[in-house]
Amino acid sequence: xxxxEHIQNAVDNSDRGNFPxxxxxxxxxxxxxxxxxNGKDSVSEDDFRKFVKENWELISFMCIPLALPLPLNVxxxxxxxxxxxxxxxxxxxxxxxxxxxxxxxxxxxxxxxFRIQNGFEIIDGELCIPFTVIGGxxxxxxxxxxxxxxxxxxxxxxSIADFKMFISELWGRIDLAVRVKKFYLEHD
Length: 188
Prior knowledge:
The protein is 52% helix and 11% strand. It has helices at residues 3-15, 19-38, 45-63, 76-81, 91-105, 132-143, 174-186, and strands at residues 112-115, 121-123, 126-130, 157-160, 163-166. The model is unreliable at 65-70 (pLDDT under 50).
């Protein structure tokens, strides 16, 4: 599948409230972006880590509220799924791990769920992730320069802060995301 098809699936699933499937599609869009960028057939956790680190400022601007209750003491059930999560972790590390797991298995790991409210939180032994993370990951894939040749129907939109824009006009236009961020920060 192309990055555009993954983004379309992410938006469609998100609109239906199927956030786990939307996240998996956004993860595949990021992985495909990395394949295009790196010229490799496979993507490693280190590739995801570098991508998230390099793009964290825009990802977090597009999707995560400024005040996050992180790091979290990850619950035991999550530690069993991912043993190295035995200390406090930040949102970026959680997202990297989920990107790698979702692209490898095609599904969200158990003990992870999405919520409408902002912020990461532990509820009933599950790690709850704000569904807006999906938009941040999909958004960074859309605006990444490697995807300037992608296409999607004009009926698909994505929000960057309060700006709702046609995805078809954003492919490869990281400059527009940076411009929106700058505008938003100057007028806040």
